[in-house]
Design goal:
By secondary structure, the chain is an alpha+beta fold. It is 31% helix and 31% strand. The protein binds flavin-adenine dinucleotide.
Length: 364
């Protein structure tokens, strides 16, 4: 296929890299531009779903992720220090009946390496600054060390994150709100953390504070909390020897693009939807968007992209918001009802399977 069919992908995060891998596999001409000089050094998203692993099989990435990641089998749930149950991830109705934990920095590097093997290099230090749509193509303006230049392509796929310049240039709205609570994350080395490697923990405290601890490498853990100090909200950690590798705080934005397509411009991943990290689907939804876009382009059914993916983004936002408000409720009565429900869910495998199918991307 020639340059007239070329797809220009903006952003080399997990969404853009997945789109580049899939389109290259189809034999499309692809250019992927990224304003950063190197792959993110940050762990960011750490959970890769069963469905994402399926989707990343044909391009040769899934095996490499599986070889490096930790296969999480159990999530223990404690309320005010008392263990009330455990989610058994082996109940996920899928051949990958676990949640694969791997820092996003490694996921992206594996994708970049595989893409290079397929003959496509990420064009780094190159920023998308604008576009003009015409009937048969799109003229895109890019900026690199030599200044601004214009390039022509058939379609643009904007995978440039929540502040997406592509989305703005296409005139697509991004509606929603920002939660007031300040969240924090910490990546910590804890030599004496006694849990087996394949387990994560959720701690629900009185007053709506929550914390999760997830292994991301041997003796290394991701802690995430809806409080300023994630480490302080993990019971028993205060007195333990530990090395904090990274701390950060953020507010949770909940936003959905008004559409995933405008003419020849398409958006996916965080450019199209952002929500709380509860449920761990952020990066996975982006991978799914990218594969769907490539499939629709290959099958010449581009209208189906927005029709298929926009409702999934909207549904997942509703689901993760419900999940979040249940986890961080400040009402004693609602917390008591939630705890009864959690005890029931964790002791009835059929109920666990329903929720796990959703989190794993097996059903929407
Ligand atoms: C601290 C942190 C922790 C997180 N934890 C989790 C988690 O536990 N689970 C989860 O599912 N998700 C988590 N997320 C969210 C997850 O990282 C995102 O959902 C995921 O990165 C989205 O991938 P993406 O490729 O759509 O966008 P991004 O990863 O944001 O990638 C966008 C890329 O586009 C590039 N770019 C931006 N603008 C331009 C431009 N104009 N020109 C060229 N390039 C551009 C950026 O440099 C970037 O590389 C976390 C995020 C953060 C920040």
């Amino acid at each position: 296929m020639g340059d007239r069919d070329r797809v220009l992908i903006v952003g080399a995060g997990p969404t853009g890299l997945t789109a580049a891998l899939e389109l290259t596999r189809q034999g499309r001409s692809v250019t992927i531009v990224e304003r950063n000089a190197v792959v993110t050094p940050l762990a960011k998203a750490v959970g890769i779903s069963s469905h994402s692993l399926d989707l990343l099989h044909p391009c040769g990435v899934a095996e490499r992720l599986l070889a490096e990641g930790i296969r999480l089998q159990t999530v223990f749930i404690s309320v005010e220090g008392e263990l009330i149950g455990a989610i058994d991830l082996s109940l996920i109705p899928h051949r990958y009946n676990f949640l694969l934990s791997l820092p996003q920095s490694r996921t992206e590097q594996i994708m970049v390496d595989r893409l290079a093997e397929l003959g496509v290099q990420v064009r780094r230090n190159t920023e998308f600054v604008g576009l003009a749509q015409r009937d048969d193509d799109v003229e895109v303006t890019l900026r690199d060390a030599r200044g601004e230049s214009a390039e022509t392509c058939a379609y643009v796929f904007g995978a440039d994150g929540s502040h997406s310049a592509t989305r703005q240039a296409a005139g697509i709205g991004f509606d929603g709100y920002i939660h007031e609570r300040l969240w924090s994350i910490a990546d910590v080395e804890i030599p004496a953390w006694s849990d087996p490697e394949a387990t994560a923990h959720a701690f629900l405290h009185a007053g709506g504070d929550v914390a999760f601890i997830i292994p991301i490498a041997p003796r290394r853990y991701r802690i995430i909390s809806n409080t300023r100090d994630a480490v302080a909200r993990v019971p028993g950690l205060a007195g333990m020897e530990k090395r904090v590798l990274l701390v950060d705080t953020f507010h949770v934005s909940v936003k959905l693009a008004t559409a995933y397509r405008e003419g020849r411009v398409f958006i996916g991943g965080d450019a199209a939807h952002v929500h709380s990290p509860v449920g761990g689907r952020g990066m996975n939804l982006g991978i799914e968007d990218a594969v769907c876009f490539a499939r629709c382009l290959g099958a010449d059914t581009l209208d189906a992209y927005n029709a298929e993916r926009h409702p999934v983004g909207a549904r997942w936002i509703r689901f993760s918001e419900r999940f979040l408000s249940m986890a961080q409720t400040q009402s004693t009565a609602l917390a008591a009802a939630r705890n009864v429900a959690l005890r029931a869910i964790t002791s009835i495998p059929a109920l666990q399977r329903v929720g796990l199918s959703r989190v794993a991307g097996v059903t929407e």
